Amino acid sequence: MKLSGLLVILVALLVPFIWWPQISQNRDVIALGSQYLGLMSLICMALGQIIATRWPGIEALFGPMDQSYRLHKWLGLGGVITLLLHDTIDAEMKGLGKETVIVEAAETAGEISLYGILIFVVITVATFIPYHLWKWTHRLIGLFFVAGGMHYLFILKPFKNGDPLGLYMYLVMALGTIAYIYTSAPRGIRPGRKYQVDSITPQGDALAVEMSPKGGALKHKAGQFAFFAFTDAGYTEPHPFTISSAPKDDGKLRITVAPLGDFTMRLRQAVGAGQAVRVQGPYGHFGRGSKKPEIWVAAGVGVTPFVALAQALKADGPAVQMIFAVRNADQAPHLAELQDLAAANPRLSLTLWESSKSGRLTGDKIAEIAGGDLKGTRVSFCGPSEMRRALSLSLAGYGVSGRNFHFEAFEIRTGLGLKRFGAWLLKRAQQAKEAAN
């Protein structure tokens, strides 16, 4: 995450405290603190809504889209925590005026906002709920943000809506509401590029979908991803796919679809030549290396950004050792293409790692292939998260710092790591039991 984005969030949360000394005079500071917690909750949720728009400039401010989405998740969690604290700590103050029907309605709106957001946060954390159901319910969170805004506007508070703090919160709520309306609008009215599927070809256990622009082409860099909506196939909801081809003069794109979930399994059966595709993007900064030697580690369909990067690798570019890990060679997407690229470019060395024959790929094996000491070497990885964590830990012993281990995880939906934490606790308990015996 970029420091600039974190600073924006910090400043946005601290601005209300500019008026704290003035407002807190002769006031119950505990109740005032509770009201401020409510303001911070609204600010967190508004910033989360803004990041979700994927507007131009979001990546420049908050970081690559995978990092921005993680920030979006933690802003949502921060909004819920501050909202719960606001509800728990009594925020009522004496001498603010008489409660009216509007004030009572505002209190009801606040309760609706609280319980609605809590329900949808539980749905988000429960990653076993199907993606399409989560995506549909996730859009409704913005309605509870609006309800929280109505609660704030009409509730009794120690400042007026026309005061500087009130005007600041007007701006926060306006931006958050505009962002919610934008993300909820029909997909067709959002900026995007129109493409048409040219061909579909098998690539190992995946399918390569090539498409041509119908109008202005997407301008991307090797290693980036975009959101694709296969409208003619009946899938209007955009999904992220890495572009598995380097930029071309004719604007053609290629993505590689592997059967990794319900959506990709259905898509493989529904997509066909001549169908329309709507593309939004590009996003991501994966593969932006230096002039120093690099190691690329791809696992399965995680090879897609590296295919594009290999196509774009110049003959005078950095030396690259690429390791492609698959179970069997016949399952490896774009293997023949990579072999041809490696044969044509002396700066690219390709090693195929078949786990069915050689076992699991480890940091020790990568170091052995690359020649030992890896201190200062940039390693880029794309593949399963469990493999990424294991390799990151083992490669640290060979001098590959976290700063030099690069990956991009653009999961739109992630939990809070509770499953991994539970597995860790179970492992430690088993170790303790074995030690006791």
Automatic annotation (TrEMBL):
Q: Which GO terms describe its cellular component?
A: membrane
Membrane topology listed for this record: Multi-pass membrane protein
CDD domains in alphabetical order = FNR_like_3
From the UniProt annotation, give the residues forming the signal peptide.
Answer: none
Regions crossing the membrane = 36-53, 112-133, 140-159, 165-183
| An example Gene Ontology molecular-function term | 2 iron, 2 sulfur cluster binding
One Pfam entry name: FAD_binding_8
Which UniProt keywords are listed?
2Fe-2S, FAD, Flavoprotein, Iron, Iron-sulfur, Membrane, Metal-binding, Oxidoreductase, Transmembrane, Transmembrane helix
Q: Which cofactor does it need?
A: FAD
Record-annotated FAD-binding FR-type domain positions:
187-289
InterPro entries tied to this protein: FAD-bd_8, FAD-bd_FR_type, Fe3_Rdtase_TM_dom, FNR_nucleotide-bd, MRET, OxRdtase_FAD/NAD-bd, Riboflavin_synthase-like_b-brl
Q: Where does this protein reside within or beyond the cell?
A: Membrane
Q: What is this protein called?
A: Ferric reductase domain protein transmembrane component domain protein
Q: Which organism is it from?
A: Actibacterium atlanticum
Its taxonomic path starts at: Bacteria, Pseudomonadati, Pseudomonadota, Alphaproteobacteria, Rhodobacterales
